[in-house]
Design goal:
Membrane topology: Peripheral membrane protein
Low-confidence stretches: none
Strand content: 15-25%
Shape: globular
Subcellular location: Cell inner membrane
Keywords: ATP-binding, Cell inner membrane, Cell membrane, Membrane, Nucleotide-binding, Transport
Protein name: Peptide ABC transporter ATP-binding protein
Radius of gyration: 21 Å
Strand order of the largest sheet: 7-8-9-3-10-11-13-12
Order of helices and strands: EEEHEEEHEHHHHEHEEEHHEE
CATH topology of the largest domain: Rossmann fold
Distance between the termini: 36 Å
Helix content: 25-40%
CATH architecture of the largest domain: 3-Layer(aba) Sandwich
Family: Belongs to the ABC transporter superfamily.
Length: 331
């Protein structure tokens, strides 16, 4: 197992006291796996990614039974030790790629900084040309053929798709074992989104790189996704094989997201209104007791005021007292 997170809790202070924004989250990513984490905006998806990367500010308190990358406990590392791992074995790309590119220097100069010195074998005087050649190679890998024009460009001159390709090129410069993609295509047109997804799938197939993809739409996940995890308001609802969950969801939240996405309604007539999940995701000041989906769940019963644990049920793990399609009498 490449990444192993067990009972990750992230808390912060609010006007009503301390609250657990993430509540005992467990998540695993195997070597060479594409694992997609899906949840609505504000569900805590990005907090998980930033906890892995060590990007959280001191106002967040992080606790976990286990937060391991390979055989390394990330929570017991110093800041310097964490940076050494992040700089080599784990990389992350973000939603608004342009905002993470330096507007004052060329794309070529920025990618040159991503090339590690240990990847250069020439003499001191030859390293400049060798570094440029590696940057050109990176651009070719992400589907940019005219590397000279791109290396001389600035961030404001790039389209969304091109900017995201540059972020991916920078991320794979040191051939990471794990790539975390935090909603990298959410603002893109469908055609551009599919182009980026194809690129990530090719890199995954070529290098065996594991990918933790973060998305808020089940209808817009990578076709190559092998495992899905559903998160709602800081709690993991369900996790399992992607095909199995999409075919027969066991948690009401997974079913609700499927019903509200184009995954099940791709052939709906024009102007047809999609189904919606009643209510709104709770604020930090008004988190429900027990299962946080309870107030919006049509299947909720009195025992749901007690937080369900994420338990193994058949071919998946489900955090629900009354899972769909597994226990009789639920429907």
């Amino acid at each position: 197992m490449l990444l192993d997170i067990r009972n990750l809790t992230i808390s912060t202070n609010t006007a009503n006291g301390r609250v657990n924004v993430l509540d005992r989250v467990s998540l695993q990513v195997d070597e060479g796996e594409i694992h997609t984490l899906v949840g609505e905006s504000g569900s805590g998806k990005s907090l998980i990614a930033r906890a892995i990367m060590g990007f959280l500010s001191p106002r967040w308190e992080v606790q976990a039974d286990r937060l391991w990358f390979q055989d390394t406990d990330l929570l017991n590392l110093t800041a310097k030790q964490r940076r050494e791992i992040i700089g080599v074995d784990i990389a992350m790309i973000f939603q608004d790629a342009k905002s993470y590119l330096d507007p004052n220097i060329t794309i070529g100069a920025q990618l040159s900084e991503a090339v590690l010195n240990q990847d250069l074998s020439g003499s001191f005087f030859k390293r400049k040309s060798e570094r440029k050649a590696k940057v050109a190679s990176l651009l070719h890998r992400v589907g940019i053929k005219d590397h000279e024009a791109m290396m001389n460009s600035y961030a404001h001159q790039l389209s969304e798709g091109a900017a995201q390709k540059i972020m991916i090129a920078s991320a794979i410069a040191h051939r990471p074992l794990l790539l975390i993609a935090d909603e990298p295509t959410s603002t893109m047109e469908p055609a551009t989104r599919q182009q980026i997804y194809r690129l990530l799938a090719q890199l995954h197939a070529r290098y065996g790189m594991s990918i933790l993809m973060i998305s808020q739409d089940l209808g817009a996940i990578m076709q190559q996704t092998q495992r899905l995890s559903m998160i709602y308001s800081g709690q993991i609802m369900e996790t399992g094989g992607a095909d199995a969950l999409l075919e027969s969801p066991s948690h009401p939240y997974t079913e609700a997201l499927l019903n509200t996405s184009l995954y099940r309604h791709a052939k709906m007539p024009p102007r047809t209104r999609l189904p919606t999940l009643a209510g709104a995701e709770p604020t930090l000041q008004h988190l429900p007791i027990g299962c946080r989906l309870g107030p919006r769940c049509q299947y909720a019963r009195p025992p749901c005021v007690k937080t369900p644990s994420l338990e193994k049920r058949q071919d998946r793990q489900v955090a629900c007292h009354y899972p769909l399609h597994l226990d009789e009498g639920k429907k």
